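We were asked to recover a plausible sequence for a given structure. The inputs and outputs are reproduced exactly as logged, with field labels preserved.

PROBLEM: sequence recovery
POSITIONS: 209
GIVEN STRUCTURE:
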């Protein structure tokens, strides 16, 4: 589901204002979630509604039994992000990234590199790394709780605010923390836009040139 949503958003959603922040229609979102859960690749009809796609991706991440960034490392993430020295904070975040299980690391790398690409269009879509972290962070990391409902964090809670402080620098430093070229069309099941497939994400300097 992560790849399917990302591929659709790369096609139609990168310049959409308020992506991940604005709510989608409930009926469209429900239908899209059903298609994703059933493994369908016939998703073209949903590409015209990037807010539904973004909403489905948020739901998928939030409904995982274990957060993508893992509850086990929750305290490690918060501690790493708490350093006031940018270089030390970056090194600590990289250390925690390397503690993730392989599949979690690969999926987080994929997602964060996509979110960094989304943030490159922030003048148009109004989704800066901070704004993205506010709306997506609580869906990526939450503490262990006895009750599942407690794990679905309130965006205004202290815990969520701390999580934003973790996710924002991940997006800001995506190429440093998750280096290397990236092909978003990992499975080759989707038809990507011509400028995305096998394209190296530009550095900040290249993007500004």
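RECOVERED SEQUENCE:
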């Amino acid at each position: 589901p992560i790849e399917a949503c990302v591929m659709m958003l790369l096609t139609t959603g990168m310049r959409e204002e308020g992506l991940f922040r604005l709510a989608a229609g409930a009926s469209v979102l429900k239908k899209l979630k059903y298609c994703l859960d059933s493994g369908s690749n016939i998703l073209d009809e949903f590409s015209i509604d990037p807010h539904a796609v973004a909403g489905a991706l948020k739901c998928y991440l939030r409904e995982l039994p274990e957060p993508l960034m893992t509850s086990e490392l929750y305290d490690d993430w918060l501690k790493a992000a708490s350093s006031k020295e940018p270089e030390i904070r970056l090194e600590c975040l990289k250390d925690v990234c390397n503690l993730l299980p392989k599949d979690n690391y690969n999926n987080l790398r994929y997602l964060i590199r996509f979110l960094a690409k989304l943030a490159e269009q922030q003048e148009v879509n109004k989704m800066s790394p901070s704004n993205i972290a506010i709306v997506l962070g609580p869906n990526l990391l939450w503490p262990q709780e006895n009750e599942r409902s407690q794990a679905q964090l309130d965006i205004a809670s202290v815990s969520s605010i701390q999580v934003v402080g973790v996710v924002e620098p991940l997006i800001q430093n995506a190429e440093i923390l998750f280096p290397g070229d990236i092909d978003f069309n990992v499975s080759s099941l989707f038809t990507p836009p011509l400028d995305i497939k096998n394209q190296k994400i530009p550095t900040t300097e290249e993007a500004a040139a």
